[in-house]
Write a structure and sequence with these properties.
By secondary structure, the chain is an alpha+beta fold. A hairpin with a 2-residue loop joins strand 3 and strand 4. It is globular, with a radius of gyration of 15 Å. The two termini are 24 Å apart.
């Protein structure tokens, strides 16, 4: 059973940062290169960056827990009265392809719907074929492209994908 555990303590933030290092280094170097992985881990997925996102930027992080073990993490931020961004959804390679992301999205969908949020949206690297296909199977559709300068000569070259929440 997949459950979400809200991240509220410094110890939990450290677990998220540790998972980020492991997941990003196992999955993304072949897509965006090790230098960009290192830059993104330092600027958006370090413990300090996660603390700032939770404290100052309205992010809600959850650990993804299976059999009482953290196997990934997710972060959502409300972007308007009717819209929320699924900012992060990362699962250890050993747990991909087991329906974890589908379960997480279903739980987030229910949370958002209960709050009156009508749309969940995300960005995903345009060359990250596996997750794009998984998001499409769950009900997300590509609604555009976004290229974001993230500093030091790096950009995020993403699709924007959207999904209506269940009413």
């Amino acid at each position: 059973m997949v459950r979400l555990h809200r991240v509220t303590t410094d110890a939990e933030i450290e677990i998220v940062a540790s998972l980020a290092r492991e997941i990003w280094n196992e999955h993304f170097p072949s897509i965006i290169g090790q230098a960009q992985v290192d830059h993104m881990l330092a600027t958006i997925q370090s413990a300090e960056a996660i603390r700032r996102q939770v404290r100052d930027e309205g992010y809600e992080y959850d650990l993804i827990v299976v059999d009482e073990q953290p196997v990934g993490y997710v972060a959502v931020t409300v972007t308007s009265l009717a819209s929320a961004q699924l900012s992060k959804l990362y699962v250890l390679g050993s747990h991909r392809g087991r329906g974890v992301a589908k379960s997480v999205i279903a739980q987030l969908d229910s949370r958002c719907s209960a709050r009156g949020i009508e749309e969940l949206w995300l960005t995903v690297n345009r060359h990250n074929a596996g997750p794009i296909a998984a998001y499409q199977r769950i009900g997300f559709t590509v609604s555009g492209t976004i290229v974001t300068d993230i500093g030091e000569g790096f950009v995020m070259d993403d699709y924007r994908m959207t999904k209506p929440t269940t009413s």
